[in-house]
Each structure stands twice: as C-alpha cells, then as structure tokens.
Amino acid sequence: MQSRRDFLQVAATGLAALAFHKSSLAFATDHPIGVQLYTVRHQAENDLPKVLQQIQAIGYKEVELYWNVYTRPAAELRRMIADHGLTAPSGHLNYEGFASKLDYARELGLQWVVCPMLPKSMWNSLDSFNQAAEQFNKWGEQVRSLGMKFAFHNHNYEFQNFGNTTGFDALMSNSDPNLVSLEMDCYWVTQAGRDPVQMLQKVGNRVRMLHLKDRKPGFPASQQLNDAAGHFTEVGNGSIAWQQVLEQAAKLQVEHYFVEQDESDKPPIDSLAISYRYLKPLFAKVS
Q: 0.85 exceeded by the pTM?
C-alpha cells in the first residue's frame, strides 16, 4: 500500500516533470529568432522597408536595431517594424552619446538598450575597463528609471590579459548584476579563445541575450579586434557547437536570440536565410 510520503514524492516528481516540459515548450514557442540589422546595414540604410519584408519572409520575428537606422522619428520607425510583422525588443546605442539617445529608445518601445562597444581608446587599459564598468552602473540606473534594461555586448578585445585578470572580468566584477546584463556574442567569445558553452556556465543568468554568429574553423584565436579577427560564416557552417550552446542558453532562460554576420561572401539576406534554416529545427530539437 502506498504511503502518504510515497504519494507526495511521486506527485512532486510529476509536477517537476510537468514544469520542465512547460519550460522546454516555452523555449521553443516564446523565443523567436531575431536578426541584428547590422548584418544587412548597407541594404537597410538604402531601403529599410524592403529589408524588413525580406527578413520577415524568411521567418524571423524580431530585429535588433543599431545606430544608423535611428535617422527616422521613433514613432515612424516603430510603426514600420510593426507593419512588417516584426518586433524590436532591443537596440544598440553607442558609448559616446549613449544617454542622449535614451528618450528615443523609450519612444521606440525597446525593452533592452545595449552598449555594443567601448571606444577604441579604452581597449588597452585595465583602468579604462574599470571606468567603463562604473559608467555601465550609472547607465543601468538611468535605463531602469525609464522602464528598460541595460546590457553590454562583448567582442574579443575585452579578453586581453592585464596581469591575472582581463578586461571582461573587470567589466563583470565591477558592474552591478542587478543593473548590467550581458548580450553574449558567441563568435567573439570563440575568436578570443574561449568556449561559449563554458562562458554561459560561468556568467550564468547575467546573459539575457545571445548573438548567434558562426566562425570558420582553422584560424588562430586573438584578443585584438582588427581585420585579421574576422572569420565569419553562416550559423551551422562553422565551428561552434550550437546545440550545446542553445541547450545551455535554455537552462538560463535567455530572452532573445539575434543572428548576426558582420561580413558575408554572398548577399547578406541569403546568409540570414541559411542561418535560419539551420537554427529553426535546432531550436525545436533542443526544446
């Protein structure tokens, strides 16, 4: 005869399994794949409506904005994105002039504002990374007061060694996790010589967004951001173990996934289609 204790244990196991199933289902249904518009920057700056139509036709549901599409009034840009069946949960704002764009970002309806890069003059000094972390805390407070959230986006230069630490470690340890999140770029983590799965495990829930960008195999790692660091290819055509990345991201309940490819040897919209065709079934498999 089953005891009350055994019954409660079985019930708890069943509830846990149901919760896991719901969490997995949410990963598949609640996290549409997006595009960082920098991928199609030349086309977007020439004819943004056409580009949005092409992105939506591929199957993407979200776009992440960047600085050169902010030439339109916020209401017009927001309406244009919605009219093409897309949403824009995130946008990049340059380090220089960051605060001056926050009202515009709020008018766009962004959930996230992201600082994509430090000025080049700050790349080679640990003091500069410490200074940037303090600035991120201030912006994080300001962004939160406007009803949005703040994150920074990594490249490879943050992983330079300064004694027994790195610029990346300085940014993470000296910024407030309640105010400053990370949009992790899987390509640049890999180019810096790190493993993106291990980085997700290390940083944990501070990673709220991912840039999905693949890297051609056979090239040396580097912590210098220059032309020699660019080995971009479509997601699924490179060396990054995407299933393991997405499995770890699902555990962290990462909120948004944006495909980005800085350069392509084919029309960028074709590259985006190749990446989407690879990722769509993989998301379903991981879930």
A: yes
